[in-house]
Amino acid sequence: VTAYWCELAWLGGERAEAGVLAEADGAFLSSVETGVATAPQGTTVLRGLTLPGFCNAHSHAFHRALRGRVQSGHGSFWTWREQMYELADSLGPDSYRALARAVFAEMALAGMTAVGEFHYLHHRPGGSPYEDPNETGRALVQAAAEAGIRITLIDTCYLEGGEGRKPEGAQRRFADRDAEAWTKRVDSLGDLGPHARTGAAIHSVRAVGPAECATVATWTGQRSIPLHAHVSEQPAENEACEAAHGLTPTGVLAAAGALNERFTAVHFTHSSERDRAELGSAGATVCLCPTTERDLGDGVGAARAIADAGASLSLGSDSHAVIDHFVEMSATELDQRLVTGERGLHSSSELLGAATLGGHHSIGWPEAGTIAPGSLCDLVTVSLDGVRLAGAHDALDATVFAGAACDVRSVVAGGQEVVRDGAHLMIDVATELRETIAEVWT
Ligand SMILES: [Zn+2]
Questions:
Q1: pLDDT tens digits for 97-123?
Q2: Contacts 24+ apart (CB under 8 A), 91-96
Q3: How far is the CA of 84 from the centre of ligand 1 (A)?
């Protein structure tokens, strides 16, 4: 049994609690006591504000190598995508594993204890499979283990390069022959180890037709695993879908039987009221990725209206323009203020819920995301002594609206210490990022 005494901890309410004693038996919390004024002897002292581990519910690890290369220059989502494809065509399993290890370690430093890796870079350049057709997926699972975080490998079905078009160029690496072949490949992943689970994705309704969406939805239902999809990120995607099928992307997914409490719509930036009602009544989740949506010029998702319709919220750093859930939380609220002219649409507690419990639910780890008995022992401690947070009236509001990944001082993931004094215990993260990114561009 390991005992942690937290100066302040967020246990899910509107305010942080002072003096919280949390005991872990192995990977799980066994007891959580509030109002313990001083640290009992033999406990690990966590000074500052302790939060449950964040979940990065939508990640494409290799996009991290685009940081600082794609932020300037005129263009759009579609021109960015061409730059991303160039990178996608250059990675092999070894360079991908090394890069992902550094990226997942960067996530650990930012307080993320689990990642939903939306994985579509499956095959060799040109599209023929590796000897093990899941070689790149296994590289990602291994990378997460080395970085000390959990992973849901959200293996992504990708069949077409746009409504009815064959995959071209880098897209050939993403594609399986058909939905049936995709199910067989994902089934052959087998057990990935205690830190990893399998999930599934429909890349988008651009890349998977209605009949194949239904095949994927049925297959994931039989296995009771999470199903994600990029949905309505761009107006052009909605227009093409309506022209081809007479339905919005949400409508196509609903008709395919994909919408339920295991489903997560990623982005959902250009959703209609009817789309929101469909997702909400299904009890589905929406994964917002505000820093990427800003970076790509996607638009601002209607997070308040989505939550009011009954959907859960989660957060992802997606293209990794930055890896910082403090920024994703504040952006969720602040970007909507710019659009609506209203303030206070989401409380700090709601935003933290999206970053923690909402995310873990979305990627299939319902036993994580809270500091409570029976929950996985994921403890992220933010220092309140740094210049960004010193003197704050309310620790929770200050942390959500002014905190940053660099304020994270310690991270325990599943009972294992991963970050101490702001440093990763196993990995020199900045060095590995620099070296692995240089390698993929040579
Ligand atoms: Zn994405």
A1: 999 999 999 999 999 999 999 999 999
A2: 91/62, 91/121, 91/440, 93/130, 93/135, 93/136, 93/139, 94/139, 95/436, 95/439, 95/440, 96/61, 96/62, 96/121, 96/136, 96/139, 96/140
A3: 11
Strands of 112-119's sheet in order across = 54-59, 112-119, 150-157, 196-202, 227-231, 263-267, 285-288, 312-315
- Cα 204 to averaged position of ligand 1 atoms, centre (Å): 10
Catalytic residue among 203, 267, 346, 361: 267
Q: Among this protein's residues, is 267 annotated catalytic? A: yes
Catalytic (active site) residue 155:
no
Tens digit of pLDDT for each residue in 146-160? 999 999 999 999 999
Q: How far is the CA of 391 from the centre of ligand 1 (A)?
A: 37
- What type of residue sits at position 425? L
CA distances from 23 to 70, 372, 408 (A): 45, 10, 21
- What pTM was computed for the model? 0.97
Q: State whether the Cα torsion 93-104-286-77 is positive or negative.
A: negative
Exactly one of 318, 324, 378, 407 is catalytic; name it. 318
